[in-house]
Design a protein that fits this description.
three-stranded antiparallel sheet, 9 helices, 10 strands, four-stranded antiparallel sheet, 44% helix, 217 residues, alpha+beta, Arc Repressor Mutant, subunit A, Jelly Rolls
Length: 217
């Protein structure tokens, strides 16, 4: 890692100042979109530090379904990797880049050594708690919120057009493509959206917001 890259990492995560001497020894890796950085049941290779890009962390099932847990951006922490390092157990989810990503890995040994530094330890535990809160909210949504409400919420906040496949939405919501397609066609019949190939145009955002707030089951 060169001086510019070290400065970028310290800008994103000031708590790494305590590790400044060891940062220059890290290797920066580059991965194109769609690269699998880690998979379930693999040993964790280290604490990931993103400089640019994004990583989608998800959990798959034996039936081929997938549920997105969260996404990691520069300056953020991967809960699955950190939990694996804490417990010294295999990874419980998979991580895939969604954009061109540059990152480095703090080895398990260096990670454990870094935890002796109060600033770094507080930084990691603070992000760990925030990620746990995100996962708790996801569990509540999956367990108690209707799927049509969750789909309506997923369509909001991206402008008037979403260039996305039905399969990608199904993966995000932890369901199957056929159900998402059925709900989208219902939304289209209700005048909420207009569907075309890999594109969803929002026609009635107020109606979608109302659908997103329907009571759970």
């Amino acid at each position: 890692m060169n001086t510019t890259e070290s400065a970028r990492l310290l800008e994103l995560c000031p708590a790494f100042q305590a590790l400044h001497g060891s940062l220059v020894q890290l290797t920066v890796h580059e991965a194109p979109p769609g690269t699998a950085l880690f998979r379930e049941q693999q040993a964790c290779e280290g604490f990931p530090l993103l400089l640019t890009g994004e990583v989608r962390v998800s959990r798959g099932s034996a039936h081929g379904r997938e549920l997105e847990l969260y996404r990691v951006l520069p300056g953020e922490m991967c809960l699955v990797s950190t939990a694996s390092l804490f417990s010294q157990q295999p990874l419980s989810a998979r991580g895939t880049t969604t954009a061109a990503t540059r990152f480095c890995l703090l080895s398990p040994g260096d990670f454990r050594a870094a935890l002796t530094q109060p600033d770094f330890r507080d930084f990691v535990l603070g992000l760990f708690a925030a990620r746990m809160a995100d996962l708790t909210a996801l569990i509540e949504a999956v367990a108690f919120q209707r799927l049509d409400s969750r789909l309506a919420g997923a369509l909001l906040g991206h402008g008037t057009q979403l260039h996305v496949t039905h399969q990608a939405l199904a993966d995000e919501l932890g369901t199957v493509r056929e159900i998402v397609t059925r709900l989208l066609h219902r939304f289209e019949r209700d005048g909420l959206v207009e569907l075309s190939r890999e594109c969803i145009t929002i026609r009635n955002s107020a109606g979608l917001r109302a659908a997103a707030t329907l009571p759970g089951r």
